[in-house]
């Protein structure tokens, strides 16, 4: 199998390679069928599911035969051994690891591989693929996981003491995703940790205004609680470096612990 390894990307424009060489797949319905098979690489996708992805609820009378024809054309492009026939569907003979979206989903399961997952993201999922099913079901799942991974990576940068490095990115994210409250929380944290309490409070007001204007709801409990803690300069949200200095100052004032005493 390694001699003709298939790789498929769907995080951005759909592409496919066989044995490292690009294979153009330009027909819209072939691209839809290929994307569907890729999202279940190594497992069977039913003819009914493939038909739904291609036509939605407006199935033609010869949908099964049409799907069979599309698979035949894909085999002509990718190789006859690239797609296997099953009793009620078809299987793409590729490993999940060789489909960027499936590899992305696996990598986002661990904080350790968050950055590797984000490196796979090239743009909107299934860009250039026509399918209400893919864009209505699969794409939102991928985007949600992407936003979660971004939150995690930015939080890691904040915890590492780099609040200034993420400010520009967070301003862009809150502009593009104004209803995604975790990005506002991270922006407020970053500003506060840069010593910009007034700007952090202003960010909260911006979030409040956008939420009210666009969906008519106030900020959620987490955002409101962070606002309260910033307003009162709660020491629990002080920068890690400041927390370390406070611990050092306490140690200097109290002196070393007696031998055998808890530190």
Question: In words, what does this structure look like?
Answer:
The protein is mainly α. It has helices at 28-39, 47-55, 63-78, 100-107, 114-118, 132-159, 163-176, 181-193, 197-215, 221-231, 240-254, and strands at residues 6-9, 15-18, 21-22, 44-46, 83-86, 89-92. The protein is built from 11 helices and 6 strands. Strands 1-2-3 form a 3-stranded antiparallel β-sheet, with no helix packed on it. A 3-stranded antiparallel β-sheet has the order 4-6-5. A hairpin with a 2-residue loop joins β2 (15-18) and β3. α1 (28-39) crosses α2 (47-55), α1 (28-39) crosses α3 and α8 (181-193) packs parallel to α10. The protein is elongated. The chain starts with 5 loop residues before the first strand and ends in a 9-residue tail after the last helix.
Give the SSE map:
Blueprint: E1 6-9, E2 15-18, E3 21-22, H1 28-39, E4 44-46, H2 47-55, H3 63-78, E5 83-86, E6 89-92, H4 100-107, H5 114-118, H6 132-159, H7 163-176, H8 181-193, H9 197-215, H10 221-231, H11 240-254
Antiparallel strand pairs: 1-2, 2-3, 4-6, 5-6
Helix pairs in contact: 1-2, 1-3, 2-3, 6-8, 7-8, 8-9, 8-10, 9-10
InterPro entries: AfsR-DnrI-RedD_regulator, BTAD, OmpR/PhoB-type_DNA-bd, Sig_transdc_resp-reg_C-effctor, TPR-like_helical_dom_sf, WH-like_DNA-bd_sf
Family: Belongs to the AfsR/DnrI/RedD regulatory family.
DNA-binding region: 1-94
